[in-house]
Amino acid sequence: MAFDSFAEFIAMGGHGPYVWSSWAITLLLILGLVWHARVERRQLVEGLKRRARREQARQQQGDSQATLYPVDQGGSS
């Protein structure tokens, strides 16, 4: 093992604060990235569901108007 004790491992030959703060910052950035991706995905899925419901409502509204107000298929004047 490169270090004789756990305390030496933590101290990293005097570079411990730099090494461990770098690890901590990297971990926080990765966790933030994962959290942001999950939030973005959730918002995307919710937006797609809203869009699908809106399009379905428009389609149903168009179908009901077509049955209430049939279009003249031409011919007799």
Describe it.
With 77 residues, this protein is mainly alpha-helical. The protein contains two helices and no strands. The protein is rod-shaped. The model has no long low-confidence stretch (mean pLDDT 87).
How do the strands and helices of this protein lay out in sequence?
Blueprint: H1 6-11, H2 16-68
| Overall 3D form | rod-shaped
> What is the number of helices?
2
Gyration radius, in Å: 31 Å
Largest sheet: none
Features of the shown structure:
77 residues, mainly alpha, 77% helix, single chain
Please give a quick description of this structure.
77% of the residues lie in helices and 0% in strands.
